[in-house]
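[job 4417] fold queue: 2 targets
>>> target A
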Amino acid sequence: MSTAILTGQPVPGSSLEGDLRSLGFDVRLAHDAGDAGTLLAAVPADQRVAVVDARFVGHVHALRLGLTDPRFPVAALPGAVSVQPAARRALTGAVARESSTAGGLAIATENLADRITTALDADGVDVHRPELGTLVAAVPTDPQERNEARQAVSAVDDEAVRLRSAVKARDGFFTTYCISPYSRYIARWCARRGLTPNQVTTASLLTALIAAGCAATGTRVGFVAAGLLLLFSFVLDCTDGQLARYSLQYSTLGAWLDATFDRAKEYAYYAGLALGAARGGDDVWALALGAMVLQTCRHVVDFSFNEANHDATANTSPTAALSDRLDSVGWTVWLRRMIVLPIGERWAMIAVLTALTTPRITFYALLIGCAFAATYTTAGRVLRSLTRKAQRTDRAAKALADLTDSGPLAELLTRFTRGALSRGPAYVALLAGALVVLGAALAPYGSGWPVLGAVIYVLLSPVALARPLKGALDWLVPPIYRAAEYGTVLVLAAKAEVNGALPAAFGLVAAVAYHHYDTVYRIRGNAGAPPHWLVRAIGGHEGRTLLVVVLAGLLTVVQFKVALTALAVAVALLVLTESIRFWVTAHLGGAPAVHDEGEPA
């Protein structure tokens, strides 16, 4: 349980104690700063502590935002400050100084919470102050001010504010107008019954997997049921985030589950559609794998660009300024959000086309829409990068290097090629990727030419390690490597022309893509990249690409299918085991809670 130390004389008729208890606080009274210090010392070190002025008047949700949000070690409102165990020492020091300065006089409680907040600011502690909007949080000093504050509280429905704030501030058109108007009430229903965001996230995953199973039946009834269930899964997907915001139930594990399950749901559904089509005699596995490759590469473009620029200095450009001006006009905002085909629009399109058409048509539409969106977003980001004068940080360069997923071969070759590959990483990576993919595409299956292309690809792979990736277009290196690796696997599996090769390739790309997504989520959570042994064990992008190409050159098509299957299983077991171990350990170990609002994925 958390503890709230109420300072000063209680105000007759105040509901503050009851409000704090409703938020899970054990309330204790302090008559002066010395009492506050004594009570603080008696609270177990692993508990949250809040110091609240007894004269506080405000909405319960204002207290909830200021005192219970798990994402921030220190948070403050007028007349209240809350500290998690990580910042406990800073709070103890501030209270001790206030007690010493006041000489133990009762006047030491005169807005002690605000004085503690000021002291924490002076000590360089990062104090979070939530945006309250129309919510009231005040410390009246006389009866008239108190009456005015109470009237202001009565004039605003904090439950309505809480429901509005549960919805993500930036989202797609479909989600904003077709889902969120009612999913927020589902979130409230879940909160009142004690359900957690992780439980809703899991329910969304299970619903999507059932939808994929329905699609795999290959019947019209199954396709209609799949479309409906996919939409309901998306409703639950919106609900889990809204529940987290509504009840402030943020966690490291929850953020990872939410992000990871989104990808698992979508790609499992692609597999279900491909299985359903196969039952009807139509092989669309190549289209399903192509859709997964394209969607994953789109995400890597987003991740790399954002990591490269989010903490850059002098980060301005005419293109960015034009984009900001367009975002100031209502209809252009929604148009630009829709044409990038975010998850809401994308899943709605997939669901409707599944129910009304065939898997092949669904995949054609998905590929065309995602290709247009990828071209639009990538072109805009390239223009921004070429016109902006950004100075990227060492942290950004490290994140990009981690996202490249370079393995032991690239590390070994770096010792010999550092000087030769220190210029134009994006152009070198593009050349290397084009050679390996075109070699696999143009040569017949079993030819040695793709192996030569893969060897050149490996020889050029140290470009990502030769120098810090701080150039204007260096953020393109990770997505180029992803496209090269995934594209090579797709092309070779398609050229094998044997039943089961493309599904095996689908599994391999899914396992590797999971590893790459996991890397992104660790970086976003400030947890660093996956351990070096894991990257070495699964070969890095260059090692896996070379291995797949060599296997295609040496094995028969049936043997190649078996080898792809075995490789997919091995990679999946390694990355899933390490990923689950890491995120569960981080959650149980009390890692800082995170909640990634991000871009609509």
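>>> target B
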Amino acid sequence: MAKYPFEFDPGTPFMQQASDWIADVFYEVLPEAGFEVRDEQIYMAFQLERAYNEKKTIFAEAGVGTGKTLVYLLYAICYARYTRKPAIIACADESLIEQLVKPEGDIAKLARHLELTIDARLGKSPDQYICLNKLDEVRADEMASEIYDTIHSGLPSFVHRPDTMQAFHPYGNRKDYPQLSDDEWGRIGWDVFQDCLVCNQRHRCGQTLSREHYRKAADIIICSHDFYMEHVWTYDARKREGQLPLLPEHSSVVFDEGHLLETAAQSALTYKLKHSLFESIVTRLLDGEVRESLAYAVEDAITSSQTLFELLAKHSVHVPASNRREVILSEPLMREINRFSSLLGTIEEELVFESGLFTIDDYQLKIVEEHLEMIGLALSLFKRPEGLISWVTDDGADGITLVIMPRKVKEILAEMVFGKRMPVVFSSATLSVDGSFDYVASSLGISDYLSFSVASPYNYEEQMKAVLYPEPSAPSAAKMEQVLRSLKHAEGGSLLLFPSFEELHQFQAELEHYPEARSYRFLYEGSAEISHLISEFQRDERSILCAVTLWEGLDIPGPSLSHVLIWSLPFPPHDPVFDAKRKDAQDAFREVDMPYMLLRMRQGIGRLIRTSSDSGTVSIFGEQLEDEYVREQIMRFLPSNTERMAPC
């Protein structure tokens, strides 16, 4: 067991001793090591002591530069050692995880200056690992790039032959293949339709081996919001199947950039159905000598599934600025959903009789039953469409995927996460709207919580210049020319933030018509692994990084990032998820659209000033800037000398 970083007195409450030690760290140890310790850190430390003492949820809103990460890490480590259970640090995405664990990151700094051995391990999401089966499939494609053969030959020897692995050897991580585009990685990366339970390569899979490694962490497990929520939603099912939960029992949870947790929660609590997967699973039932009635039921269900997905393709409409198609609940579609559900029930009844005849392997039978139960639960939501959000995605040659999500997740979160007596810390520079935490708290089902806000120590009035451009959101000659003038004035070192990949790709296509843009190096999210792109951007001060997911967490001080350009105001899309929220609101624009946009905008602007010596410009484009109410709300966190340009 790891020792406490202070002399422990059994007669004194542990958290009091931990808090005293943390105060000494900030008042004495770190200043002696050359750190600039701020009053905001001390204040935050005392606030977190309350949350850990009372085992409650706390919203810790701390502005850029307050050093909030060091504070929550110290409490998480101490409490983990006290309870002998690791703490979970859940970040909004994989790029934020990399920021935390990089060699010069906060964990490394604490270990070095406090002479601590910190056992911090990564619990990366499954989609960050190679799927060996998908790699084999793509290599069999004669048209596939030779790069996949190179990847295969570079895998550890025990993957290719039954060697004995002497020690944990991580492999197959997305970060190991930085040059692959997101599309190229998608051909070999794990996805939700992989049937890992019956995979004959699962014991040599990089994802499986990684899971066995991080579960043994003594201090900290670092994962994404998505992965933590996946752990929550699959907890009961995995235990029912005789599997370990994705994460071990833990002492506390920190949600870094916690304002984004609802999106991850909704994403995890979804059912994804695909005809090809359903067919491949139920046809396993026909491998043995099964009764004729079961065989007919399986064939009828396969036919109904195919019809259902054909109707979904026909009765769905494209959602702008996304890869989704909204499902239109027509009478023919509902009729086929009910028919398919009924046929699934027939198969389940037939399996009860079949199991007594022992004609089907028990393990295979269990897998099929679990899958049928999942589909049945998903389709049952259509009986109450008012509580349902659904859409389809087009996967090209693989057909379409039906995604089904309950309208509200807060009831489940309240029971399974925030109802437990455990310290839960939401850390972000943007958790409140107009000084209130109700927007985030109510969306997550949190009724009892602590909260505090501390402002950034930076002088934005002097360090930041801001310019508003009330331009049309769609690409136009006038807007493109103004954007290029802004980039030329900044001489590179620019981060372009887009609300959607659709807008980013539109900009990329338009840029081809402007020869003057060729003097700059543009880096586009999706063209390579994200942390690789960030490193390239930081290294090349004249480069320009175009991104959709880097509104939060990107930490690049100095001239490498001296200009943030916001392509259009980041209002939420008109997709099924946000449309459902709008329907529940009395004033959808002010209760849903504006709070989301303002939180995102504050995060995006926060990428610019990362140290007290930084300076730079924020350029904000958007047709809604002509609206006085919108403009006034944005001006509340911009310098008073912000310029407003006339529309072209």
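[job 4417] complete. Note on B: The CA atoms of residues 180 and 361 lie 40 Å apart.
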